[in-house]
């Protein structure tokens, strides 16, 4: 049987999205079902069943399925890691307690560090020591390892993280430790720092390893359960999961290294933005994904998504330059994102000083916004948009769900308008504008604070709520064009299907460039490439579909943090001068200055092994005359501040808009999974693929 369909399932905080693509025709089918926070697999399987049922297909028709999930992230944020033990070098047992001396708020005397990833009584220091070159100073005390393993077994731990000093240079002590643990405590899932994050800075390496260990039993149970049920249903295609760096992993690889999928879902949005830009000829893109719980922004420069290693997860996931200190650092490649608590379900409230606030608390999928009629009573951004008549209560989710206007009005009035002594409509506009201001700030952080001018970028807006707010954000930042793809509410799920299989490797190599052992660097790259090729071939990737991408982390001697510089083909020695030039340029762009006369050093070598997957093509609309009159659905009163209040505003059925059609603002374009708002003074043009390109008139 020919399996020609690809299925992507993205589990969000409010909805679980599915998208099915026919590889031959490019045709797509989408589905949205409410997420099930108590057990995300229920929503996942419901989405699979619904989209296959509506398509009249059987599970065996699916060639492969890609899953974007927040299971790992939620386990960390909610403090629900599996019981985890920690083995480290003698004298460093308190590493997890000490953490770092930085704090997110410098003068906050009441700030408390995140709870250690493993309690102190489950941490063991083992007599052993390597020096900075990897040479053995003190042999491994194998008896102490066995005794620690027995104690951890009695304490009922499920997972174990091992992080010895300088193990990134010599992994033998860690590997031998795993062998001993497997003899004494075979049920334990052991994670080694030399395999998960073979880099210097012991706390960062230990944190990454412990997170991998702590979420591993949870992710393993989750993926195994899903896989078993999919196989029972007859789905025999490849099962893949999105990872934080924008590639995909097999379920098997994700079970072993789940830390690589901590920011699985949001990464897909940036990847699909890059894909759309490549297909439509836009190299520089700001990705804006606003769902029900959060808003996420990312940046694509010259067709390549930004990737960072400065990432931490804790009370809230964040991927920003500079350590923040509020969470646990993770040293794996992560798509560079700024994420804030501003989604359609973000709750508006009045603080003790009488100031209107929005978020970060969210109504989520349960109890959901007040207008959903599921028992929620708190006003949200979605409720505010309904009060402003920007949402049609009869056509939400294609008419499948009717919104309760009275409940939205009541929530805004009683919770916010009455305490402030203001009209509910004015307060609803305030809720929307406060949220917009926060999202403008997020877009500035991902662009201006990274040394980029947002006016040089196209804003790709998606997520269920993204197109409702994107025009206003672009207006604030002078972004010339907003691109709203077809089915924006499920665009992140589309991102799952347009990426490649990736395995990331790194090797610490701290040497000045004028003293660099280029032969050693070349050898390390060859070793990482061989490991990557072996992994991809074992997963079924053909030789012709394998590619490698190399980078070098570089810094000025004496600096504490480094920049990643791409390194193409050839030997390190031959490319050294060009790498130095690229480093100085990138330093100038990132920090506003460069010092070409200062000595530079290598810090780490990085390699990504890529297994190319054929990308689906965008489906072109039939040629049309460009007349949008037949797509007009209704004329209703909608509130716009620019118009001074409610004004006549036509709404359009997006599925009937022809290629080349022009929609003049103010206007609303509605589809099953999202609503696009076009402000006065702007217009939207429909391109040949059905994308809306919004820009100012004139």
List the helices and strands and how they pair.
Layout: E1 5-11, E2 15-22, E3 28-34, H1 40-55, E4 62-68, H2 71-77, E5 84-89, H3 95-98, E6 123-126, E7 129-130, E8 136-138, H4 142-154, E9 159-163, H5 172-184, E10 189-192, H6 193-196, H7 202-232, E11 238-242, E12 248-250, H8 251-256, H9 264-280, E13 285-290, E14 295-301, E15 304-305, E16 307-308, E17 311-314, E18 318-319, E19 327-330, E20 334-335, E21 337-340, E22 346-350, E23 356-362, H10 381-387, H11 405-420, H12 424-446, E24 458-462, H13 466-477, E25 481-484, H14 491-495, E26 501-512, H15 518-538, E27 546-556, E28 563-567, H16 572-591, E29 600-611, E30 632-640, E31 645-653, E32 662-664, E33 667-671, E34 674-678, E35 682-686, E36 692-696
Helix pairs in contact: 2-7, 4-5, 10-11, 10-12, 11-12, 12-13
Structural account:
With 698 residues, the protein is α+β, with helices and mostly antiparallel strands. The protein folds into 5 domains: 5-76 and 220-261, Nucleotidyltransferase, domain 5; 82-212; 265-329 and 437-495, Nucleotidyltransferase, domain 5; 501-611, no CATH class; 629-696, no CATH class. It has 16 helices and 36 strands. The strands form 9 sheets. Strands 13, 14, 15, 21, 24, 25, 32, 35 and 36 form a 9-stranded mixed β-sheet that branches. It has a 6-stranded mixed β-sheet with strand order 3-2-1-4-11-12. Strands 6-5-9-10 form a 4-stranded parallel β-sheet, with helices on both faces. Helix 2 (71-77) crosses helix 7 (202-232) and helix 4 packs across helix 5 (172-184). The longest helix has 31 residues, at 202-232. The termini are far apart.
């Amino acid at each position: 049987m020919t399996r020609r369909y690809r299925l992507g399932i993205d589990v969000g905080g409010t909805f679980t999205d599915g998208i099915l693509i026919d590889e031959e025709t490019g045709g797509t089918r989408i589905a949205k079902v409410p997420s099930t926070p108590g057990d995300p697999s229920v929503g996942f399987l419901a989405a699979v069943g619904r989209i296959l049922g509506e398509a009249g297909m059987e599970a065996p028709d699916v060639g492969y399925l890609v899953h974007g999930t927040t299971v790992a992230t939620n386990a960390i944020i909610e403090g629900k890691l599996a019981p985890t033990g920690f083995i480290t070098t003698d004298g460093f047992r308190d590493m997890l307690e000490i953490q770092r001396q930085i704090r997110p708020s410098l003068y906050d005397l009441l700030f408390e560090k995140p709870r250690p990833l493993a309690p102190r009584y489950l941490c063991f220091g083992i007599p052993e020591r390597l020096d900075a070159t990897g040479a053995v100073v003190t042999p491994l005390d194998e008896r102490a390892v066995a005794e620690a393993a027995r104690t951890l077994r009695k304490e009922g731990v499920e997972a174990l993280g091992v992080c010895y000093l300088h193990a990134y240079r010599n992994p033998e002590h860690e590997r031998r430790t795993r062998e001993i643990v497997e003899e004494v405590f075979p049920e334990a899932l052991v994670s080694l720092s030399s395999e998960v994050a073979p880099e210097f800075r012991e706390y960062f390496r230990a944190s990454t390893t412990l997170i991998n260990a702590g979420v591993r039993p949870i992710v393993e149970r989750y993926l195994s359960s899903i896989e078993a049920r999919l196989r029972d249903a007859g789905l025999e295609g490849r099962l893949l999961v999105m990872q934080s760096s924008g590639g995909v992993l097999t379920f098997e690889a994700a079970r072993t290294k789940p830390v690589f999928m901590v920011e699985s879902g949001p990464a897909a949005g940036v990847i699909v933005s890059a894909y759309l830009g490549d297909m439509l000829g836009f190299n520089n893109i700001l990705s804006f994904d606003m769902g029900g719980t959060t808003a996420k922004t990312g940046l694509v420069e010259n067709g390549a998504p930004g990737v960072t290693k400065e990432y931490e997860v804790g009370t809230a996931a964040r991927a920003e330059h500079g350590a923040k200190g509020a969470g646990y650092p993770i040293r794996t490649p992560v798509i560079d994102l700024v994420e804030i608590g501003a989604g359609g379900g973000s709750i508006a409230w009045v603080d003790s000083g009488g100031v209107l606030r929005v978020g970060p608390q969210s109504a989520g999928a349960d109890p959901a916004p007040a207008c959903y009629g599921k028992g929620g009573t708190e006003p949200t951004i979605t409720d505010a948009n309904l009060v402003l008549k920007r949402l049609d209560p009869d056509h939400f989710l294609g008419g499948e769900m009717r919104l309760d206007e009275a409940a939205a009005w009541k929530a805004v009035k009683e919770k916010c308008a009455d305490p402030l002594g203001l009209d509910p409509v004015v307060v609803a506009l305030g809720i929307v504008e406060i949220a917009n201001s926060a999202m403008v700030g997020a877009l500035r952080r991902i662009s201006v604070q990274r040394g980029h001018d947002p006016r040089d970028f196209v804003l790709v807006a998606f997520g269920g709520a993204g197109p409702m707010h994107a025009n206003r954000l672009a207006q604030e930042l002078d972004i010339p064009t907003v691109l709203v793809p077809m089915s924006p509410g499920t665009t992140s799920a589309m991102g799952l299907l347009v990426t490649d299989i990736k395995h990331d490797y790194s090797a610490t190599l701290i040497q000045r460039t004028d003293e660099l052992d280029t032969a050693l660097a070349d050898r390390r790259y060859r070793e990482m490439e061989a490991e990557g090729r072996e992994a991809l071939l074992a997963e079924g990737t053909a030789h012709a579909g394998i590619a490698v991408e190399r980078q070098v982390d570089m810094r000025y001697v004496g600096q504490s943090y480094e920049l990643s510089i791409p390194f193409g083909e050839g030997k390190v020695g031959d490319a050294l001068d060009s790498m130095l030039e690229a480093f100085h340029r990138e330093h100038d762009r990132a920090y506003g200055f460069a010092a070409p006369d200062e000595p530079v050093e290598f810090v780490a070598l990085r390699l990504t092994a890529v297994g190319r997957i054929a990308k689906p093509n965008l489906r072109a609309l039939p040629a049309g005359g460009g007349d949008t009159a037949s797509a007009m659905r209704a004329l209703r009163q909608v509130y716009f501040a620019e118009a001074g209040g409610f004004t006549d505003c036509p709404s359009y059925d997006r599925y009937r808009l022809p290629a080349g059609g022009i929609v003049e603002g103010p206007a609303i374009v509605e589809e099953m999974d999202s609503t696009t708002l076009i402000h006065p003074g702007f217009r939207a043009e429909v391109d040949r693929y059905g994308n809306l390109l919004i820009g100012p008139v004139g």
